[in-house]
Amino acid sequence: MRIxxxxxxxxxxxxxxxxxxxxxxxxxxxxxxxKNAGHxxxxxxxxxxxxxxxxxxxxxxxxxxxxxxxAASVGQCExxxxxxxLFANYNHTVAQLLITGDDVENDTRHQNFCNTxxxxxxxxxxxxxxxxxxxxxxxIVIGDNDTLAAIVAxxxxxxxxxxxxxxxxLYSADPHTDPNATLIHQVSELNxxxxxxxxxxxxxxxxxxxxxxxxxxxxxxxxxxxxxxxNGSHPAYLYDILDGKPVGTVFSEGACV
Length: 257
Fold this sequence. Notes:
single chain; 257 residues; alpha/beta; eight-stranded mixed beta sheet
């Protein structure tokens, strides 16, 4: 199975912006085990700006583009160093790809991007992707790694996209404000009713939210890829998802994975 796993900033970092070491170590261990089982894995990782904020000692996430880019350049170094070190413990080689909008919108660049990804998978490397926040401008403001992960899944004909976030999945209402909200386990069609359930991000660290996740689901479902939203605070859910257990919200026109 070819799997794309997207990890959000709130999963990787504490509210301070500093790395959640225990959780990241567990995620890397489980992904390594999934690869050892024979699956191909691509990781789309947020967190560069958030980790840069922590390392630079900033009091909050910056709002201006130059400071965001500066934080991203600092945080991306720490992010990849951490991944390289942790995955090396399990004899897995990582590769970094930083993507901008042109890399998916320009046909030639997109083909080169796909060729590189496919070759890395053939070489049994673990590609780790992020938006190139250090040079992008519009991408930082309107871009998000949920959509990037879906585009990656579409580009490499992935079987499954897993979005690890700070929420259990899609709810019937906002679970942060409505105690009667219930988790929707299966979505087989993206209609107006489903889109109406999308809210805004509850985290002040990332740039996503349910709107971007539904956008990602649309991309995946249109190309026959199953997508799952699950809570990243429980990395072992990755095992459960692959075992077909009811975790999070599954977006698929067919049966659950």
